[in-house]
Design brief:
Blueprint lengths: L1 H27 L26 E4 L2 E5 L6
Antiparallel strand pairs: 1-2
Length: 71
């Protein structure tokens, strides 16, 4: 009886940890939010220093990320 109570507590702790991890991931990752955004594209004369998956800032505010770079 005592071992089953300990096992239930550990199982509950694991379930809560998984739920908390998922919640933090949804809160932190901007790509996990859903389809509320839109895609834009730009043409640059020199794209040196641009890296895919890097963040895009406007007035020091994160507004998106670089999805891909094509020639």
């Amino acid at each position: 009886m005592r071992d089953s109570v300990k096992a239930a507590k550990v199982g509950l702790l694991v379930a809560l940890a998984v739920g908390a991890t998922y919640g933090v991931w949804r809160f932190v990752d901007e790509r996990a939010g859903g389809d509320g955004g839109y895609r834009v594209w730009a043409v640059f004369d020199d794209a040196q220093g641009l890296v895919p998956k890097s963040r895009v800032h406007i007035a020091d505010i994160d507004v998106g990320y670089i999805d891909s770079i094509r020639l």
